[in-house]
Amino acid sequence: MRVPLALWGSFVLAFTTLSYTLRFTAGKPPKDLLYKWSTVTGNLVEFAIIGAIIYGIAGTAGDRRRVFALRRPTSWRTAFGIGLGVGIGMFILTLLLTPLLEPGREQGVTPDTWQPKHLAAYIANGIVVAVVAPVIEELTFRGLGYSLLERYGRWTAIIGIGLLFALAHGLVNAFPFLAAFGVGLAYLRSRVDSVYPGMIVHGLFNAIALTIAVSGKPQADILGTCAAVWPVPSPF
Q1: Is the CB of residue 192 less than 8 Å from the CB of residue 79?
Q2: Structure confidence by residue, pLDDT tens digits, 20-72
Q3: Global pTM value
Q4: How far is CA 152 from the centre of its chain?
Q5: Which residues contact 28 (CB under 8 A, 6 or more apart)?
Q6: SS3 of 150, please?
Q7: In a domain? residue 40
């Protein structure tokens, strides 16, 4: 498993470097980013490339379904309970830390107001953010990444995946929130031995974030940081 781990670690390190480079050199993306069709295209291209890379790396680790944890959870009831706990925990963390860190200002992706004329583009971007992004990110971190790190201990994998997940987003103020979310999803993965519940929780979280983003609610700032996933080459 050393070669797959080295390949996966190198990929995450390279993506983290790219994320922070873009963050500090390109500045904040425009607030109407999710109203543009070019964002849909850019994200789909990015996630297709990421998917191809992790698919290739997983092949070096043996059975892909096993390393991606593409199997039925040991307990849907346990998954529901932990998923609900992750959601409540993130909401509480939002209330406590958002006034101090204001992570939404750093991310700058979720729009300030609703623009009905861009409904179709916003829905398309919403599908990418709430469906495609959670699938690829969960396969990358709680699937492949967790399987590769689990040999070093359950909690090593949980904490390690949570921190790497946060780093890959290339954010500073939002790092504590993303790390907490990543750790929560990794814990969920460890308890039910499946990546599917994490995809659902991640997707619901992102979908709620995008809905709140155009409602004028203050919680949109932090929720948007998790919904806005990784930077794309363009238009980010």
Answers
A1: yes
A2: 888 888 766 676 788 899 989 989 999 999 999 999 999 998 899 999 999 99
A3: 0.89
A4: 23
A5: 106, 107, 108
A6: helix
A7: yes
| Amino acid of residue 28 | K
Pick the closest to residue 144 from 168, 161, 167 (CA basis).
Answer: 161
Contacts of 89 (CB under 8 A, 6+ apart): 180, 184
Answer yes or no: is 16 within a domain. Answer: yes
CA distances, 97 to each of 20, 104, 218 (Å): 22, 12, 13
Q: Which whole-number Å values give the CA distances from 113 to 12, 32, 47, 155, 226, in the listed order? A: 34, 9, 27, 41, 19
- Segments forming the whole domain that contains residue 193: 2-227
State whether residue 13 is helix, strand or coil: helix
Q: What is the pLDDT of residues 100-129, one digit of tens each?
A: 776 655 555 666 677 888 899 999 999 999
Report the distance separating Cα 137 and Cα 159, nearest Å: 16
- How many domains does the chain fold into? 1
Task: Outline where 27-127 has alpha helix (H).
Answer: 37-59, 64-67, 76-101, 103-107, 119-127
The pLDDT score that the predictor gives to residue 105 is 58
